[in-house]
Amino acid sequence: MKRTIVLALAVTLLAGCASAGSLRNSKPTASYAGPGSAGDIASCVSNAWSTKPVHLESYVLYTGTTIEIHKTENGPAIALVDIKPVSDRTVATYYSNFDEDDTWYFEQVEHCVDVTPPPAN
């Protein structure tokens, strides 16, 4: 019984990784660059997206932050944004497999990149 539960959990976790990976293998829906920090832009995007009835998952890595949108807690990623520092800018790349109009989501990414000020020196 324990093996079945562990196997089901592993398959679920791998399915989430596979869906995010397949999104990244597709052409990005939009990409934006600005002077704000990756952390500040990610916070802005997360706050905006959290106003919608979707499940968000956020991963902070040494290369930046990824925020995934899922329709349900255990469902596959239907969109994500990778927010990474590149030289003196931060680049936010949005990928989507929404089955409905998701313009609002990538407009929020653009807005956050545009309004987030550069870090104070």
TrEMBL record:
Q: Which domain of life is it from?
A: Bacteria
Q: What is the name listed in the Swiss-Prot or TrEMBL entry for this protein?
A: Lipoprotein
Provide the species name.
Dyella japonica A8
Any keyword Signal? yes
The protein's UniProt keywords, in alphabetical order, are: Signal
The residue range of the signal peptide is 1-20
